[in-house]
Amino acid sequence: MESISLYILVFVGGGIGSALRLGANQVSLRLLGPDWPGGTLFVNLVGCFLMGLCAGWFAFRGGGTESQSVRLLITTGIIGGFTTFSAFALDTATLWQRDNGIASAAYVIISVAGSILAAFIGLSVFRGTTP
């Protein structure tokens, strides 16, 4: 029975994350227009930072058996529903197909390097605060 409840937690968290992603995309569309995939870039960078924070928290501060449920809700559910690397791939291809190779390459470099850097920063927040 516990296995089913974990799936429900991830399901609910994924819905929350997806709704947050939709909001971020709508705000980005209003602010930046349709020619730059700013919403996807934002959620990828923020999502990777949050994943790093959570990984650091659970590795250095979290504990106990109840943390497994919370970890799955937050990381697999909410953050998994929030980040959008499949959309990243489509946005990159779309920029490229519009004959905008420079924007496509810039988008890939900023997304990949920025996301990895954000995850390292998130992890480092808790490295210095471990007991």
From TrEMBL:
The UniProt entry lists membrane topology as:
Multi-pass membrane protein
**Amino acids binding Na(+):** 80, 83
Regions crossing the membrane = 39-60, 72-90, 102-126
Catalyses: fluoride(in) = fluoride(out)
Q: What is its main location?
A: membrane
Keywords recorded for this protein, A-Z: Cell inner membrane, Cell membrane, Ion channel, Ion transport, Membrane, Metal-binding, Sodium, Transmembrane, Transmembrane helix, Transport
Provide a GO CC annotation, any one: plasma membrane
Q: Which domain of life is it from?
A: Bacteria
GO terms of biological process kind: cellular detoxification of fluoride
Q: What does this protein do?
A: Fluoride-specific ion channel. Important for reducing fluoride concentration in the cell, thus reducing its toxicity.
Q: Which family does it belong to?
A: Belongs to the fluoride channel Fluc/FEX (TC 1.A.43) family.
Name of the protein this chain belongs to = Fluoride-specific ion channel FluC
